[in-house]
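call fold(seq) -> tokens
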Amino acid sequence: MRETWAALKRRVRFDGEQNHTGPTPMAARRDALLAAAHTITAVREEAGLHGLQMHTSVGRIEVYPNSPNVVPSRVSLLIEYRSRDVELLRVAAERLDASLHAIADKTMTGFEVESSVLRAPARLNDRFAGLAHAVGTELGLSTTDSMTVAGHDAISLNRHYPVCLLFIPSSNGVSHNEAEYTSDQDMRNGLRMLTGLLYRACASSVAFR
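ret:
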């Protein structure tokens, strides 16, 4: 891996009014979860505007009081946008801001953006990547350059140290799932690749920075 995508991550909280779901008229409800649901849809629709250039998700919802017969009074969402293009993320953030105001008005709720972090795309160490290709050739393994959309600890380390990411095949590209599977042979090849790369890096007189 030579490059990473940028990512915009926001934590948004909606505030409504806690009330009984039985007698409270629908038109009078200030339902924070309803506001959150509209937001989730808006975030997904944003990705649809950009095809393969953007991925979005809402991976966590925190609902209070989280009772089946109580209108939720507070809901927090963890929202994520990913793209190679930082400008696309800025435009998406502006549209999200507009959507949040419109959704809050529609649902009679309030909202607050509790945190917002933009992680810029990163270029990993080219010499390290070149050395990885050389090691793969020596071992008779096929290698290719790619770009990672996912975030990794290495991205943070990249600001201080030379970094290279090695990936081995996962069946059907499945990850973060119980069905994730990599063959024993691919894992052995990955270990050989990593060991060879570390040996060559330690033995090399070439500075990576």
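The two ends are 17 Å apart (CA to CA).
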